[in-house]
C-alpha cells in the first residue's frame, strides 16, 4: 500500500512558528510531526510514501531525503506557486499513487492509530463499490459538532451522534480522476457527494488524536508526550 502525507499547508494559525519552518517539521517530544507518521507507517509495513509540499517545501525534502534513514522510500509532489488544497494536492500526485486504494494522512495531526489496519481496509475498499474509508474520532473542544454520522460502518451526512474526521483516510484513485491536477480543490465536497450516494465506509477510533492547529496545541502535545516518555523510563 502507498500512503500520502499531506504537508503543503501554509500553517497560518501556527504563525510565527511557520514563518521559517514548514508545519510538518515542527517538533513535539524531540521529533518533527511528520516523522512520527513516517515511523508509525514503516512499523506498520507501509514503506512507499508520497509527500506533497509547497510552503518552504525544500526544507521537508532536505530533512527527510529519500526516506532511507527511516526504512521508507519517499517521493515528493511539489505544488507551485501555491498549495492546491487537499483534493487538489492528491489529484496532483495521482500519478505517484498507483491504481489501488491508497492512504492519506494529514501532516498536521498526531495520533496513535494503528496504521497496520489500513491495508485490510484498503482490500475491502478495492473489492467494493465504495470510494473511501474514513477514520473518525471523538469531537475535540474546538470542533464540538463533528462532521459525519457513523452507522454500521457507513458514513451519513445526517444523524447523531456525529464524529470528527481524523485526517486519516483511504481513497480510490477514481475519486480524484476528474479533477484538474493543477487546480486547487477542497476534499470536503467530494466526500459529501460520495457519502450522499452511500459510498463511504468508516470506523470510529477512540484513541489518542490531536489536531495540531495552533501553537498552544503544539505546546500541550509536546508536554503530554514528554510526560509519557518520562513515565515510561522512570
Q: How many discrete domains? A: 1
CATH superfamily: Spore Coat Polysaccharide Biosynthesis Protein SpsA, Chain A
CATH level 1 name: Alpha Beta
| Largest sheet composition | 9 strands, mixed
Estimate the mean pLDDT confidence: 93
Order of helices and strands: EEEHEHEHHEEHEEEEHEEH
User: Total helix count?
Assistant: 7
Radius of gyration: 17 Å
Q: What's the helical proportion of residues?
A: 25-40%
Taken as a percent bin, the fraction of beta residues is: 25-35%
Write down the overall geometry.
globular
CATH topology: Spore Coat Polysaccharide Biosynthesis Protein SpsA, Chain A
The second-level CATH architecture is: Alpha-Beta Complex
The poorly predicted ranges are none
Structural class: alpha/beta
> What is the total tally of β strands?
13
* Cα-to-Cα separation, first versus last residue: 38 Å
